[in-house]
Amino acid sequence: MDQPLLGALEAGGTKMVCATGYADGTILESSEIPTLDPGATLEQVVAWFSSHDIQALGIGAFGPTAVDPASPRFGSILETPKTAWRNVDLLGALAQPLGVPCGYDTDVNAACLGEAIFGCAQGMSDVVYLTIGTGIGAGVMVNHQLVHGMMHPEAGHILLTRDPADPIGTESGCPYHASCAEGLIAGPAIKRRWGGKRASELADDPKAMALLAGYLAQALVTYILCYSPKKIIIGGGVADHTPLVALARPRVRELLNGYLVTPEIENIDTYIVNNSLDGRQGILGCLELARRALES
Amino acid sequence: MDQPLLGALEAGGTKMVCATGYADGTILESSEIPTLDPGATLEQVVAWFSSHDIQALGIGAFGPTAVDPASPRFGSILETPKTAWRNVDLLGALAQPLGVPCGYDTDVNAACLGEAIFGCAQGMSDVVYLTIGTGIGAGVMVNHQLVHGMMHPEAGHILLTRDPADPIGTESGCPYHASCAEGLIAGPAIKRRWGGKRASELADDPKAMALLAGYLAQALVTYILCYSPKKIIIGGGVADHTPLVALARPRVRELLNGYLVTPEIENIDTYIVNNSLDGRQGILGCLELARRALES
Ligand SMILES: Nc1ncnc2c1ncn2[C@@H]1O[C@H](COP(=O)(O)OP(=O)(O)O)[C@@H](O)[C@H]1O
Ligand SMILES: Nc1ncnc2c1ncn2[C@@H]1O[C@H](COP(=O)(O)OP(=O)(O)O)[C@@H](O)[C@H]1O
Ligand SMILES: [Zn+2]
Ligand SMILES: [Zn+2]
Description:
- 2 copies of one chain form a homodimer.
- Chain A is an alpha/beta fold.
- The first copy, chain A, folds into 2 domains: 6-109 and 279-295, ATPase, nucleotide binding domain (Nucleotidyltransferase, domain 5); 120-275, 2-Layer Sandwich (Nucleotidyltransferase, domain 5), CATH 3.30.420.40.
- Chain A is built from 11 helices and 10 strands.
- In chain A, the strands form 2 sheets. In chain A, strands 3-2-1-4-5 form a 5-stranded mixed sheet.
- In chain A, β6 (127-132) and β7 (136-142) form a beta hairpin.
- At the A-B interface, β7 and α6 of A face β7 and α6 of B.
- The complex binds adenosine-5'-diphosphate (2 copies) and zinc ion (ZN) (2 copies).
- One zinc ion (ZN) is lined by residues 157, 174, 176-177, 180, 182-183 of chain A.
- Chains A, B: Its cofactor is Mg(2+).
- Chains A, B: It comes from Collinsella ureilytica.
- Chains A, B: Keywords: Magnesium, Metal-binding, Zinc.
């Protein structure tokens, strides 16, 4: 029997990654379309998937977006700084012309799902996926289910305590919060502090790395205490191109100060890890969303 | 047909609250036993429930405790400062002599369940219950399921940013963390700062209340961003006897700074609330745990 062909779409703020594949995690073809004007961009996405005979589509979308199927706005982009995309019915714009069942979640929840189904958190019930790139986003699985709630987690914006040695100034990389994790750790914060440099160019700067690792450790401690995850997986450009994950681990232990005694914390090197799957966790999670849409 | 009689046990660090009732939330009888030596205390608890013909028992236990039914230590108390209770198999010590099906979770998860089944969060899928008393504990429901994961949430110990006006000194009320929520807001922190006073004696002190409300708001913002709950319910002696919940609401909005645009945040007075059920959320949650144990 032939496996049904599935479609996977990582709808990001800078690019749309379209792919086809099978439920077992095989990716057959993929294509990137820049995220520009919503109308033209989505037309190209529809055209690409239309030229492949997909039976279902899984979408991981940039946020904030409505991910509760019971919401009247399910599948729409919400209050984003990308004003052209505000209130765009992303799911509707794809599901209607394509005429196949669609799964829909945030890009980071999809990546979390990808790691939990195909990657280093395979079979685990409680997983945090963190991306540190242009922004910080968290995808979270609790009891094998992705977290939505009121909207979806926005754990990249949790408030941290400023390091007095931080040269960033009174503002941060986040327009809303002077001291949130995204505002202090993500790409724009790095550019702001270190003359426009990218994280990869600072990978060998011990002072810069120590500052960022301290902030990342603060955020990780909060995620550990709040979600009690069985694994934390970190992806995104900033984490991928620096030793930040390794540097944050001992700082996490320092901050916990012996408070949590679990086998996971004892084996912190396998508890807090860089992403697996060669960066394909997001698109593979979308494939799994497609599989679930087809099944239900 | 007769309703089956259910048992509910709130196993707290200072007292054991035993009750009988029905699945519909009726409490028939209750009794308090001080939490002293484990052997003697549990013997009294067993004797009380043995004298009532219960068909199942629901237990909400002080933590840290093993709440994952798959764990070999399920139902045991873990690394607690109450050293006599360390490694006590609380569930076994009750389930064996009583010979009825038992449900087991943390006291705060039980209270969260009580609010979600019988109280002000009835029917909601994603709920945070916070108690601010001798310590701070959080019970959390996500997608209608209580959160366990690696252990269970310990969200009372998230790190906050110190207010420069705080007279508490370098240490806090938490022996592990100089700046965690429990260490800065709970009973011992209040005693430490204000000459042994209890929170209720400071309810009319605007400076004290503002300091505590600022810290509580920091913690609430983190819970909102991490869990994306549909409601946050706050109980415990410190919250019950002060205007802290009301004072924290505007501070939460200030800290979010317009970042989350949802109907819930717009209606913050019904989003962040004092507990309902006249303080019976914990014991009613235990009753629901008993009902579930009987059903499964
Ligand atoms: N060598 C690198 N290549 C690409 N991005 C990098 C590199 N080093 C650091 N970064 C940072 O990663 C961010 C991009 O993150 P990424 O996760 O790839 O995308 P996004 O977050 O935009 O979806 C940029 O802000 C950039 O500063
Ligand atoms: N009027 C009051 N009555 C009882 N406790 C109070 C009062 N005001 C403040 N508290 C504080 O509440 C704490 C007890 O909280 P509670 O939630 O009742 O119990 P616990 O946290 O020990 O389970 C004490 O630390 C006490 O300081
Ligand atoms: Zn922010
Ligand atoms: Zn603490």
